[in-house]
Write a structure and sequence with these properties.
The complex is a heterodimer of chains A (434) and B (437). Chain A is α+β, with helices and mostly antiparallel strands. Chain A contains twelve helices and 15 strands. Chain B folds into three domains: 3-100 and 134-171, NADH:ubiquinone oxidoreductase-like, 20kDa subunit (Rossmann fold), CATH 3.40.50; 183-317, no CATH class; 321-437, no CATH class. Classes of the chains: A alpha+beta (434), B alpha/beta (437).
């Protein structure tokens, strides 16, 4: 008898997803679907809007990562209109992007992922959540909350609002940081760096405890999609980089994205399946997000993070395909973001009021903007008419880059579980929280 | 006994939940009072467990998002069945939000662009996905067009303090633990006390413990940590200032709403429309007594007097708008002579955006945000929703600014210079039938 297993909804993630697994008469996996049941048609209703207003609309695509959805379309319009921004604006945007990276990665690790590891995968679903973690490990909980709070507060200070920021404008930023505000954040940096290191230590302990899981569950060779600036890890600016399953690297300027990324419209998901175009679908299915970024980078941009990267590569290799190493990669990025913020907060450009070029003129044309959002590459392609009204827009959204890769990974793991019974002897540690 | 609550997400961005989580440590006092029975973003209860619950057995249901898909529609209905009280949580739920702009097109046009036409579709695939997919409704609508809503919390997103105070209000508790000492003890600008400069600052009667954001930025304390157990010596100065309220500056008046909202834990300003809100009660029954009990007499005296002031002040008979909480000068040295686009130049931080030539939705937008956009030099785009419904919002905007602001343009010229009127005047509310005409 054909049997269908449904998980509805997949919890502790952002977005609307369900999982559907079909087993045949023989108990073997026939089909796995990752069903994303929501989309809102930004690709259409941006038409007719003022191009410079798009960054005030699109943050509403994602409330967890609205910062990249504010900055990326701004860059796309600047590209279309040929606008250069002052150095102060560039640094303020970098600061904003890294503040978001920091709070989002802390949230992801502690609130979304940690309950699985700290309570163990067999725990009571009613307790397997961050609220319970905070109750049982109040010190770690408070540290996690203070990390998220720092990132979100800095987003608010630079962006005006942490959820749905407003301070970037075509041509720069509307306002620099006040010195007193900058000083307030500078004072907290030392603690935050310490807590980031502590978080990496917790992560390493988890990796050690769950090594059997990390090394054996969902190790799936795929392509990877990320961004680097001259080969160095960068989340605000750079070129698109693709890494093949065997580690070959390909660089493309953002404007050439149509040579790189293809979209396949599946029948069972509103989120499309993206793939590396030269390799075709489904062979070219890639993964994005933290592990992909780490696999793309020749090195990290900051010393502590680069050290952490080397440690990871020593353990799992230069282009690891371990799905559970995503968490590890996330913590390396977390460390980089606090180091970048520490440097930028000491840079006087971020309090320099000369943060917007006054010479902005719309022109007919199209432009592409790319940044790396906390969950993957984010790309906006905007067509402007001579008056600066949006004629057309194409968006390749961060989470969307993960959908095909997640489905491919789910299929792999489902076969491990049901076809090969490969995970029955899997070693799990005693949970930290019992 | 913990109160059962459920959080549901329809078509949305999850930003309201991020905003709630942004309370971080501030959430800890509220959490033990809640029994979360459904919240996919955070806890692992599945859809079936919600379906299996008895009707009406959950006290409060928060619905974030608007109704785009058939699944959204079913989930809104399900929540109404299971929850005694439904809160439309955020501007998607209240008004439809920016994706409501999609209602300018037919469903088929939207589907064609997204699933067939976009430039990156590269393998000949395309068409609307239909396998195990819910299907789209013809138009996107806010939640109250599908089920009855008891409470609206607007904002995109609603402010963290507003959400927690709303929850605390429903629970009948204070959102934050109150400290023995007052804000002044921590204040970073003691030597340049705002009270000495004649500004109404509620620090002397408010609990310390916040991050001092307001005073560090030169703004007065608005009382968001609630009453302190003891008052600071400066409380008398504040008390005597409230006795001569008729002579305070407009900027100070603008702080009063925020103060009462936060301090008395009555979130009427947090976009929180509840028929029993305290200001309406005051207006109806004429009693300026406050819900405070066992607090320092000076605190009671000040809060009571401010309630009376709001009750009697004609400026506060209408729902307040963003301009009421904006510190920029109206009647400034600037005058709008043409409509500027946001990329042009850089506005100064002192004068009203409209008078500097920029379109700002402040005059027709409901207050509650505290003017966050304006503080980083970005005009309001109206995310808390309009102060009046069922009228032509573009015309109302033009009429209002021509009457009250330095604008030397005719109504026709002003409106003709706005090239995207729907995206400008109804960005957040197009999908709501309450909205424009």
């Amino acid at each position: 008898m054909v049997k269908t297993i449904e998980v509805e909804p997949v919890t502790r993630l952002e977005g609307h997803g369900g999982l559907r697994l079909v087993l045949g008469d023989d108990g073997k996996v026939q089909n796995v679907q990752f069903n994303i049941s929501s989309t809102r048609f930004f690709e259409k209703f941006l038409e007719g809007r003022y191009c410079e207003h798009i960054p005030r609309i699109t943050p509403r695509i994602c409330g967890i990562c609205p910062i990249p959805h504010h900055l990326t379309p701004t860059k796309a319009v600047e590209d279309a209109w040929g606008v250069q921004i002052p150095p102060a604006a560039y640094k303020l945007r970098q600061l904003l992007q890294n503040a978001k990276q920091y709070s989002s990665h802390a949230l992801h690790f502690y609130a979304l992922a940690a309950p699985d590891f700290l309570l163990g995968p067999m725990a009571d679903p009613a307790l397997r959540n961050v609220v319970h973690v905070i109750n049982k490990m109040p010190e770690v909980g408070a540290m996690a909350l203070k990390m998220m709070d720092f990132g979100q507060k800095l987003c608010e200070a630079v962006g005006g609002k942490s959820v749905h920021p407003i301070s970037a404008i075509v041509g720069g930023m509307k306002k620099a940081l006040d010195e007193t505000v900058r000083d307030r954040f500078l004072k907290q940096i030392e603690d935050q760096v310490e807590w980031s290191k502590k978080t990496v230590d917790i992560g390493l302990k988890v990796v050690e405890d769950y090594w059997d899981v990390v090394a054996n569950v969902g190790v799936v060779p795929t392509y990877y999609l990320g961004m680097t600036k001259n080969g160095v890890h960068d989340i605000y600016d750079g070129d698109i980089r693709v890494v093949s399953p065997d580690g070959e690297k390909f660089d493309y300027p953002p404007q050439k994205y149509l040579d790189v990324i293809g979209e396949h419209i599946p029948e069972h998901s509103y989120a499309t399946h993206t793939y590396y175009k030269p390799a075709g679908y489904p062979e070219g299915i890639y993964r994005a997000n933290t592990l992909a970024m780490i696999n793309c980078a020749d090195k990290m941009a900051t010393p502590l993070a680069d050290e952490a990267l080397k440690a990871m590569r020593a353990k799992v290799g230069n282009v690891p395909h371990h799905t559970f190493a995503y968490h590890w990669a996330r913590l390396i990025e977390l460390v980089e973001s606090i180091e970048v913020m520490a440097t930028l907060l000491q840079d006087d450009d971020i309090v320099n009021p000369d943060c917007k070029t006054l010479d902005v003129q719309p022109r007919e044309g199209n432009g592409v903007g790319v940044t790396e959002a906390p969950r993957g590459l984010l790309l906006y392609h905007i067509w402007s008419d001579a008056e600066g009204i949006c004629k057309k827009a194409n968006l390749l959204v961060a989470t969307n880059h993960n959908i095909a890769g997640i489905e491919k990974t789910l299929m792999h793991v489902a076969k491990q579980v049901f076809d090969d019974k490969a995970l029955e002897g899997l070693k799990l540690p005693d949970p930290w929280i019992k | 006994m913990a109160v059962k609550v459920a959080f549901m997400q329809l078509s949305d961005c999850w930003g309201c939940h991020q905003s709630l989580l942004n309370n971080h440590l501030g959430l800890l006092p509220v959490l033990p009072a809640l029994e979360i029975v459904y919240w996919p973003a955070v806890v692992d209860f599945k859809h079936d467990s919600l379906k299996a619950r008895e009707n009406g057995s959950i006290l409060v249901g928060f619905i974030e998002g608007s109704v785009r898909t058939n699944e959204d529609y079913e989930n809104a209905k399900l929540m109404r069945d299971k929850c005694a009280l439904i809160i439309a949580f955020g501007s998607c739920s209240c008004y439809g939000n920016v994706h409501g702009l999609a209602n300018q097109w037919n469903k088929d046009d939207l589907v064609r662009r997204k699933f067939s036409e976009v430039e990156s579709i590269a393998d000949g695939s395309g068409g609307e996905p239909t396998q195990h997919m819910p299907g789209f409704r013809d138009k996107i609508v806010p939640v109250d067009e599908v089920v009855n809503v008891d409470v609206y919390i607007s904002g995109c997103p609603p402010k963290p303090e507003g959400i927690v105070s709303a929850i605390a209000f429903l629970l009948g508790q204070k959102p934050f633990p109150m400290n023995d000492l007052a804000f002044c003890n921590d204040c970073s600008i003691k030597d340049n006390c705002l009270l000495d400069a004649g500004k109404l600052c509620f620090g002397p009667i408010t609990s310390m413990g916040c991050n001092l954001k307001c005073t560090s930025n030169g703004n007065p304390c608005v009382g968001c940590f609630g009453p302190a157990k003891t008052v600071d010596s400066r409380a008398e100065k504040l008390n005597s200032m409230t006795k001569s309220l008729t002579s305070i500056s407009s900027g100070d008046k603008k702080n009063l709403y925020e103060f009462l909202t936060l301090f008395l834990n009555v979130p009427l300003m947090a976009g929180f429309d509840l028929t029993s809100d305290i200001l309406k009660q005051v207006k109806k029954h004429g009693s300026p007594s406050t819900p405070l009990a066992n607090f320092p007499p000076t605190t009671e005296e000040i809060a009571g007097r401010l309630m009376a002031f709001l009750r009697d002040n004609p400026d506060f008979t209408e729902i307040s708008n963003v301009c009421d909480t904006c510190s920029r000068i109206i009647g400034s040295k600037s005058t709008m002579t043409r409509v500027k686009r946001d990329y042009e130049g850089l506005p100064n931080m002192d004068d009203c955006f409209i008078e500097q030539g920029y379109i700002c939705m402040g005059p027709i937008t409901k207050a509650g945000c505290g003017g966050m956009c304006i503080k980083v030099n970005a005009p309001c785009t109206g995310c808390y929703g309009q102060t009046k419904w069922g009228v032509n919002q573009a015309e109302r905007f033009a009429d209002t600014v021509l009457k009250q602001f330095n604008v030397s343009l005719s109504k026709d010229d002003l409106l003709a210079q706005v090239k995207d009127p729907i995206g400008t005047f109804e960005k957040f509310t197009l999908a709501s039938r309450k909205g424009g005409v």
